[in-house]
Amino acid sequence: MMKINITILEDSISEFNRLQKGILKYSKLNNLDINIDAYKSGEEFFLHNPNCQSIDSSAFFLDIQMGSMTGIDVAKKLRSSGYKGIIVFLTAFREYVFHGYEVRALNYLLKPVNENTLFLCLDEITKELSNNAYIYRNRQEIVSLPYSEILTFSSRLHYVDILTTNGKCYEQMATLSRIIEHLPGEFIRTHRSYIVNMAHIYRITSSSIELSNHLTIQIARSYYKDVINAFAKYTRRFDITGEF
C-alpha cells in the first residue's frame, strides 16, 4: 500500500471537511494509505514545524487567503527552505492561478472543491510521487519515499536501512548492488556499505562525506575517484583536478 502524507492549511472548517472527506474516499478507492495533517494558518503550521528541513509531507494543499500569512507566503517559505514536494493551491478566485508558477505549484483547485476535480488532482499527485520516489514492497505493504527526502542507503546483514531527512529509518530486505541499479543519477556508491544522495552532500574531504544533517560517511579508497567525479559533474561547481 502506497503511503502519502498530505498537509492541509485551510481556515474554513467546512472547506477542510469537504477536502478531507474527498481525500479519504480517494484513498479507499485506490488502496492508498493517506495521512492528513491539518492547520488553520501558516503561522500555526510553522509554529509546530520550525525546522522545515524535517518536513515529511508529500504534498501541501494551501488556502491562498487565510490570515496575515497567505498560502503564497507559506509556499515561498517552504521552497526557500528547500522543500521540493508537491504544492496545490486552494482558492475561490481564478486570478490567483498565476501565482502558482513562481513556487512551482502542481495545480490549483477552485473552492468549493469538486470531488471529480479533486480526484484528478490526486491522480496527478500519485503519478508524480511514483515517478519521483523510491518504491519497494515491505512484507504486506508498499513503501514510497521521495528521492529528495532520502539521505542514505546502508547495508546491515541481509537488510538495507534507508535514512530520510526527517530522521526516520526504513528497512528493506535487499542488497545495495541491486538497489543502485534502480536509482537516479544523484545517488552514488561511496562504500561497500553506503549509497549517498549527492543532493544532500554538504562537504567532501579526502576520506569522508558530511551530509546536510551533519552525518559523516566514510569514503572507501576504491570509490573515492568515482565519488569526486560524480559530485563534480552533479554540482558543476569545482575543478575535479584540484587536490583535497
How does this model look, in words?
This protein is α/β, with parallel strands linked by helices and 244 residues long. The chain has two domains: 2-131, Response regulator (Rossmann fold, 3-Layer(aba) Sandwich); 148-235, OB fold (Dihydrolipoamide Acetyltransferase, E2P) (Beta Barrel). The chain is built from six helices and 15 strands. It has a five-stranded parallel sheet with strand order 2-1-3-4-5, sandwiched between helices. It has a five-stranded antiparallel sheet with strand order 10-9-8-12-11. The chain has a three-stranded antiparallel sheet with strand order 13-14-15, with no helix packed on it. The termini are far apart. The modification 4-aspartylphosphate is found at residue 63. Pfam families: LytTR, Response_reg.
